[in-house]
Amino acid sequence: MAFEKTQLQQYLKPYLSDDRVSSMDTFIQHGTTTTLQHALSVTRVSCAIASRLHLNVNYRDLIAGALLHDFYLYDWHNHKTQGTLHGFAHPHIACRNARLHFRVNPQVQHIISTHMWPLTLRSMPRSKEAFVVCAADKYCSTLETVVVYWRMIKTLGKKGGHHQI
Ligand SMILES: [Fe+2]
Ligand SMILES: [Fe+2]
Fold it and tell me: How far is the CA of 86 from the centre of ligand 1 (A)?
């Protein structure tokens, strides 16, 4: 199935008009990037990967999974996930929220619950859509984290002088 950019807007529309999705813009993901900004980046990159590689994916599922992959709805910096590390717990929390709030299908649930692989060893992507979102998430998270370090280095540079590490 060929992908057109108008499809992206069309498939995103019902989610972006939802208050719970909007609330993702109040949580910080990495540095100054909000969870919603991160989710939108992952969505765009996922579509770009699938389109460039001519993967025959279901774009409706891919976009829903990418947008909701971090739909855990809390600030992970100061949230206790019942004794489990956020990295392990949040795919399942996001999946539960997506199922409860949007009744997403099993394919979308699979994309969300496996996006942290290989950290979550047993929750491995088993569809093209899940693999694409898993890769796009790593790409975007790395870029967002690099930007944080880049800003820190620039700040140190502005302060001048020599810094011992
Ligand atoms: Fe995540
Ligand atoms: Fe993510």
Answer: 9
Task: For residue range 7-63, list pLDDT tens digits in order.
Answer: 899 999 999 999 999 999 999 988 889 999 999 999 999 999 999 999 999 999 999
Give the number of other CB atoms < 10 A from CB of residue 124.
Answer: 12
Tell me, in angstroms, the distance from the centre of ligand 1 to residue 94's CA.
9
pTM of full prediction above 0.85: yes
Query: What CA–CA distance (Å, rounded) separates 40 from 108?
Result: 16
Report the separation in Å between the CA atom of 155 and the middle of ligand 2, taken as the mean of its atom positions.
27
Which CATH architecture describes the domain 5-159? Answer: Orthogonal Bundle (1.10)
- Would you state the structure tokens that stand for residue 125, as one six-digit string? 């992507």
**165 pLDDT more than 70:** no
